[in-house]
From TrEMBL:
Entry protein name: Integrase catalytic domain-containing protein
Biological process terms in GO annotation: DNA integration
InterPro entries the UniProt entry points to: Integrase_cat-core, RNaseH-like_sf, RNaseH_sf, Transposase_IS3/IS150/IS904
Gene3D superfamilies per UniProt: Ribonuclease H-like superfamily/Ribonuclease H
Cited SUPFAM superfamilies: Ribonuclease H-like
Domain Integrase catalytic: 1-121
GO MF terms, alphabetically ordered: nucleic acid binding
Disordered: annotated span: 90-128
Amino acid sequence: MERAFRRFVKPEIFNTDQGRQFTGAAFTGLLKEKKGQISMDAKGRAMDNIFVERLWRSLKYEEVYLKEYASAEDLRRSLKTYFEFYNLERPEPGSPKTKGFWGGNQSHQGRTSAEVHFGPNPIQGLAA
C-alpha cells in the first residue's frame, strides 16, 4: 500500500470491510498518516456491495482460476478481454440465457451489463 501511495493519487476515502488486515494498526496507521478518511462496512454487511462481490466472484471462477498467466502483461491483457466480454457479451446473471446461475435480477431478460446500464446501443453509451 505504501508503494501505491507513492505512485498514485491518494484516495479521499478508503473503504474496506472489517477484516483483520484492514483493522490492524499498521493498515489504519498508514491511512491516518496519509490523511485518508477511513470508511468500514458494518460487520455482516456483505450485501452492501453485492454487485461488486458478484463481479469478483465471476472474475475468479470464469477467468482467473482457469488460467495460468505467463506475466503481468499477460494477466492485464486477459483481464481486459474478460471485462469486455463481461460488459458487452455476457448476459446478466439471472437472465434466461444464464438460467439463474449466479442468482440476480430476472428483469434483465438476457441483456448484457452494458445494455442494462446504457440501453440497447451500449457502445454509444460507453463512448459518451
